[in-house]
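Input (structure):
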C-alpha cells in the first residue's frame, strides 16, 4: 500500500487539510465504499476514516494522526486500510517519532510537511496548498 502522510505539529490544521483532500477526491470522481466511513474520537476534531473507490483503485483516508495509543492508533488504522485492500492511504501524522514510525513501516511512503500559517487569515491559503500537494501525490 502506498502511504501519503501529512506531517505536522499539534493543532496546525492537519485534520482540516485531510478533509479538504477528501473533498477533492470526491469531486474527482472517487466514491465512498459503503459502511466504511466513521468519525474517530471527538467529532470537533474532524478526524475521520473512510474508503473511496475509483475504477479498480481504492484509497483510504485517515484524519486522525495525533493518536498513538488505543483503538485509534495510526498504525492500527493504516493496517485496517491495508487489510481492506486499499491501494493508497492518505493520512495525517503528528510530528512524533513513535507516530511517524507507523508511516515509515510502509516501504512506499511519501511525506508532505504541513505548511505553517502566519495567522488565521492565511489558514485557508496554506491548507489549500497542502491539500493540493497531497492530492497530486495520489
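Output (sequence):
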Amino acid at each position: 500500500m502506498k502511504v501519503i502522510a501529512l506531517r505536522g505539529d499539534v493543532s496546525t490544521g492537519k485534520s482540516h487539510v485531510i478533509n479538504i483532500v477528501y473533498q477533492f477526491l470526491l469531486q474527482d470522481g472517487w466514491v465512498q465504499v459503503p459502511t466504511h466511513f466513521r468519525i474517530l474520537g471527538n467529532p470537533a476534531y474532524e478526524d475521520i476514516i473512510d474508503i473511496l473507490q475509483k475504477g479498480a483503485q481504492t484509497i483510504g483516508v485517515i484524519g486522525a494522526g495525533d493518536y498513538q495509543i488505543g483503538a485509534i492508533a495510526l498504525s492500527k488504522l493504516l493496517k485496517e486500510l491495508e487489510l481492506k485492500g486499499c491501494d493508497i492511504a492518505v493520512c495525517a501524522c503528528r510530528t512524533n517519532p513513535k507516530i511517524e514510525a507507523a508511516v515509515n513501516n510502509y516501504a512506499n511512503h511519501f511525506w508532505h510537511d504541513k505548511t505553517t500559517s502566519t495567522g488565521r487569515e492565511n489558514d485557508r491559503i496554506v491548507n489549500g496548498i497542502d491539500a493540493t500537494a497531497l492530492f497530486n501525490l495520489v
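Notes: The beta strands are 2-8, 31-32, 38-39, 48-54, 57-62, 88-94, 109-113. The chain has one domain: 2-137.
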